[in-house]
Amino acid sequence: MEGDRHGGPSQDAQLDADRFVAGEVIGKGGSSVVIRAFDKDIQREVAIKILKSELAGDGPASGRFAEEAQITGQLEHPNIVPVYELSFDRRGQRFLSMKLVKGDTLQDALDRLGPSRLEPARLAELLQIFVKVCDAVSFAHSRGVIHRDLKPVNIMVSDFGQVYVLDWGIARLREPDVVQSPPRESLVRVSVETTEASEPEPAPLFEGTVGYMAPEQIQGLHAALDERTDVFALGATLYQLLTGQIPVTGEIARAIFMRRPPPPVEPLDRLVPGALVPPELSRIALRAMSYAPADRYASVEELKRDVEAFQRGAWDLPRATFSAGAPIIAEGERGDTAFVILEGECLVYHVEEGEEIPVRTMGPGEVFGETAVFSDKPRTASVKASTDVILITVTREVLSRGLGLNSWMGSFVKALADRFRQLDERLRTYERAGRPPASRP
Fold it and tell me: Domains of the chain, with CATH numbers?
C-alpha cells in the first residue's frame, strides 16, 4: 500500500530484519507505521506495517495487531490487500508484510477531481470503484468480518485501476451463530496463541472515524454493530463522492452521542445545486445512512445492486396501473410523461366526429408518449388500456437528466421529435382518405 508520503525515518519506522531493506515511511496510524521495503528473498517491493515501539509491551495492542494480520490474511479477495507475513524483527518488534499498492486513495482522487467528479464519465469511473469496494466488504461480511472504518482514505486505487480496501486494524468478528454465511469452517478465525492478550472489545468508546460512523458506533454499542454498520459507512462514502463533503457533522455526532434526536443529514441537492447529483444516487446514499439500522439496506449486496441498477439506467422509475378501458393519454393535451408497457396491451386511436378510429395495438416493451415529451407540443393521438396494464412512467425531468436535453444531444433529439410530428401530421392528412397505418401518440 502506498498513499501519503510522510518521509524521514523515525524510531517507529526502524526494521531490524536481514530479509528486508527498509525504505521511507508511506503511512502512519494511531498504533502503527507503514514503510516501503524490499524483500531480498522474493526480490520484490512490499509494504511493512510496524507496531509502534511504545506499544510493543502492550498486550491488547499487540494482540489486535496480530488479529488484523490474521483476519486480513484469511480474506482472500481481489479487492483486499494480500498479507504475506506476520513476524518479529530482531528487536522483538512486531510487523507484518503485505502487497505494496502503488496509486492514490479515493480521497486523493476526490480532492484532485473537485467538481469535475460529477461529470458523467468521471462519475461512472467513481461508481465502478465504489462497486468494487462493495464487493470486498460483502465478501468480508460473508466470512463474519465487519470492517468498521470504511472511508475514502481507506480505499486505494492502483496505477492500473485495481481497487483495494485497506486498514482492517479495527475489524471485528461477528459471532458465528448470527452470521449469514457459508459453512462455519469458512468463517475467519484468529489464533488464541497470538492474540490471547487482546480484549474482546476495544477499551476506547470510539473506534473508527466519526464523520462516517453509524449512530450505534458513535454511542459505543459494540454488541449492536453488524453488517448494516458498514452499510452506513459506505453510504457516507458515496455521499462524499457525490457532494465532496463528509455527512456526519459535529452537530449530528454530538446529538447522537448525547442520545438526543440528531438533525438530518444535509440533503445532497442543497450541497450541490443545479441538479448535478442524480436523484437516484441521492436516494441510495440517504437510505444507506438511515439513522435506524432497520431502515438501511439489509446488506452491502443489496446496496450494490441498487448502484448497479442505476449504472444500467434502471432508475427504479415509478409504475402506473390502468384497468381495461381506462384512458391513459388524450390527443391534443400537453405531454410531460412518456410510458413503457410492462404488462398488458394498449390501443392507439384518434377521435373523429365522436368516433374512435383505431390506429394500432401496442404490447410489452413498446413506448408511447415520447414525441410530445421531447417536442413539448400537444399529443397527436389518444391511448387507452385494452387490457389491464402496468406501465413505467418516464417524466421530462428524467429524460432531461438521462439524455442531457439542454446539451447538443438534447437539441438533436428535439429536432428528431419535431420531424416525427411533421411526418405524423402529413400521414393524418392521408389517413382521412385511406387511413394508412401511421401515427405516434
Answer: 1-100 (3.30.200.20), 103-192+205-314 (1.10.510.10), 319-434 (2.60.120.10)
